Amino acid sequence: MQDTALDIQTIRKDFPILSREVYGRPLVYLDNAATSQTPRQVLDVIVDYYSRYNANIHRGVHALSQEATDAYELARKKIQLHFNIGSTKEIIFTSGTTHSINLVANGFSSILKAGDEVLVSAMEHHSNIVPWQMLCERTGAILKVIPMSQDGELLMDNYRELLSGNTRLVFCNHVSNALGTINPIKEIIDEAHKVGAAVLVDGAQSAAHIRADLQELNVDFYTVSAHKMCGPTGIGILYGKEEWLQKLPPYQGGGEMIAEVTFEKTTYADLPHKFEAGTPNIAGGIAFGAAIDYLNNIGFDAIEAYENELLEYATASLLAIDGLKIYGTSKRKTSVISFNLEGIHPYDVGTILDKLGIAVRTGHHCAQPIMDFFGIPGTIRASFSFYNTKEEVDTLVAGVIKAREMLL
Amino acid sequence: MTIEDIQAEIVDEFSMFDDWMQRYEYMIELGKSLPLIEEQYKTEDNIIKGCQSKVWVHAELEDDKLVFTADSDAIITKGIIAILIRAFSGQKPKDIIEADTDFIDEIGLKEHLSPTRANGLVSMIKQLKLYAVAYQTQLS
Ligand SMILES: Cc1ncc(COP(=O)(O)O)c(C=O)c1O
After folding, report:
1. Which segments constitute the Fe-S metabolism associated domain (chain B) (predicted)?
2. For residue A355, which residues of chain B lie inside 8 Å, CB to CB?
């Protein structure tokens, strides 16, 4: 029996991939921060869609198209309820966080002026840096960085000092993918609003672990990728406050996003369709809804409690290894452990772990500025999900010890 | 020895091992014995792109033979480059250009041959051959 409310062994049976082997060893999948695995309940929805009612949406008069449209819009509704969003108009289906951020950055091209300031946290994923750098190049706006401590926590005093009447936008992740830090986003949002700046929170890493209440947070934009929360790849959302989404110009032009088109002038469709040009990822959207149902069935409180238990257990076990250093030691963390072994390159450790059937990520985790901050080429990152077990943590720890013996 | 002879010798050595762990341990040993590149050549220009770890390779002509030295900050990568250098260093550029690299497969490192693999074995082979092409034109 597990010492937890969750019946992990039963949960694991929902995930076909967890019973496969690599190099003749049982797979130990600890790369959940990169992408999570997909339960049968979600896979079934995808197969069902293509088997029974595959049709283009929002345009057909026929039964299949209507069924597909209903299912797709029901998914939007599920997302609305899950994140406590005011209206489905504020939910734009995108291909994921990267697409969502680019949509917003593009929209701000026509709003920002030279000399305006935008703030980025020191622990962002490249997805939440590069689009803004491109925006600054286009507009002449200035990018400033909110620094962090050695523990991987944002320095809030510095943040408050950086905010001014010139600040237009602040972007920060809810949870850092490289460090696991849970950022104090409520405070970040409130402080930004005091100076009239809008805030985009990148929720790619939080969505699988924390159920965010977007109305309570009062956030202006929030982004999610379904594939990090047991859904399929290629689908996600941009949440935007209606007033902002009305203000931003469309991102891509095409079918679906228009009200009327003549060669003289086109008027755009209402929200959310204004930002949804072309045939969307229909099966993906519906499956995203199913993934949210799946997670809520397990329950976010239970998920959080169990993942914290795994995090504590893994942190203590790993720290018992000689020369092991953990990067990201914030008091509030999700179940992500970034670490290195003294004198050993993370890539070497990852290679040995791979041969042992343990999937971890090595490298800079698309967050090179963080690696530069710590002066390291990268880390080994183990990221746990609610379907991981303490036995798998033990396998990881034994693997790291073995790797150390071989490599030192 | 010709490149082919050396490759056969390497394949022979690796055939003594019955599991991946011994093969990797041997590779790590080879990595430690890699003829190291001189510090002055550890430049950005000499870094091979496509590797998660850094790999520097330098080539120099000695008479009509090409001599390689290299280094990496990761030991397994160093082992891989050591194997390649052992096979190719001290050979004529023309022979290096024409050599095939099937022996990598035979010594059980096939999984490193995938072009998407972060260690960049494929990039390393390409780089060694590029050097050979460059020096071949110098020679002729
Ligand atoms: C914090 C963070 N932001 C953004 C992304 C990009 O997400 P996607 O590749 O799904 O667009 C990731 C994914 O790795 C992430 O962890």
Report:
1. 11-129
2. 20-21, 24
